[in-house]
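I am going through a labmate's work and have reached the protein record below. What it holds is a sequence and that sequence's fold in token form. Please read both lines and tell me whether the tokens look consistent with the sequence. Do not assume that whoever made the record got everything right. Thanks in advance; the entry in question is below.
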Amino acid sequence: MFKKILIANRGEIALRIIRTCREMGIKTVAVYSTADRESLHVRFADEAVCIGPPKSADSYLNIPSILAAAEITNADAIHPGYGFLSENAKFSEICRDYGIKFIGPSPESISSMGDKATAKETMKAAGVPVVPGSEGLLEDIETAKKTAEKIGYPVIIKATAGGGGKGMRVIWKAEDLDTMFDQAKREAGASFANDGLYMEKFIEEPRHIEIQIVGDQYGKACHLSERDCSIQRRHQKLIEEAPSPFMTDDLRQRMGEAAVRGAMAVGYEGAGTIEFLVDKHRNFYFMEMNTRIQVEHPVTEEIISYDLIKEQIKVASGIPISGKNYLPKMHAIECRINAEDPYNDFRPSPGKITTLHVPGGHGIRIDTHIYSGYTIPPFYDSMIAKVIAIAQTRDEAIATMERALSEFVIEGVKTTIPFHQKMLKDENFRAGNFNTQYMNTWVMED
């Protein structure tokens, strides 16, 4: 087992990893930018090293600085959390070359799943259902036109190196393809320095349902049931829950088996997520694989009583998994609390928190790094807390979440708490009648 783990991240996920390490008797090293000098992960780690100025490229994405911090503190492993360098194959490879264990998959696995066109072909070969689409990247507009005619409109163009909706366009009719293709190509090139595009059939009324998997160093993998992440805005998740209200026992079994096949096909090590689009007829299609821990991992932990961070560390140290698949025992809902103004198009609202009261009580878990007097920096993601409600049934979990949000007081900045309170009262949400497009027509009013 590792003696000291450096956490190459910040905020609530860094604090989350520190807590599990402390329970396991493992020392921790926090790295931080000058903007995060007063952050809780810096205070609670056993050691802390400043790695640069506020800009991510000069700190949390600065591989030489992070490796230098690991070297001077004698850390024998690095946990990347999520975001930043967590899915950077080069970082994983450099860690391996320097004899520091990267707590996550191999660089080969990250590379094979990071390029979406390659990932799709890999999953297809493993017998995982994939959305009909182009064979590899689109060479030019003529190839795009022929592909669209073959699979039928509507189609969606995506950046092969993309994420967060960049380089993505939905085309409903042939006459729009030229313009949309050019727009997507330019945006992909500007965002990722890679303008490669591929095309898929656009799935109407899709649910975003993902399967949590874990694989070990010995070729074994298992799944830990599903999460429904369909409530999202501009491809950013807002509410996640497990199990999905759309799920059936048969669908869960088929999706779980497909996810395990996909994980084993790439020799996956660690915790990861196979993400699927599920149409209204409950046909499911591989979308992408996230080769890291997810923001929404707590809902999985709570429905099966399982510490995913601990499992990541155990797997990385060479301990084999049991290979057992897990089924949900409880219902959990997670609301992401962002420092944003939901009445003003979710505009970011950084600043100083003047008053803070965090909810508690039975069935509530809060993952956060904020405190009264903490200043939210404007340089990073706006998520400041996650509220997880756990109960025997979905209706009870919603009621528990409503109670918790009514107790959650954050003053000094705007937050998305009012959005969540309104969504939880929405008739369609309560009935489980929603999909990834639901927020496109949903209106936040005073």
Observations:
- The first helix runs from residue 11 to 24.
- The chain has 14 helices and 22 strands.
- The CA atoms of residues 152 and 220 lie 39 Å apart.
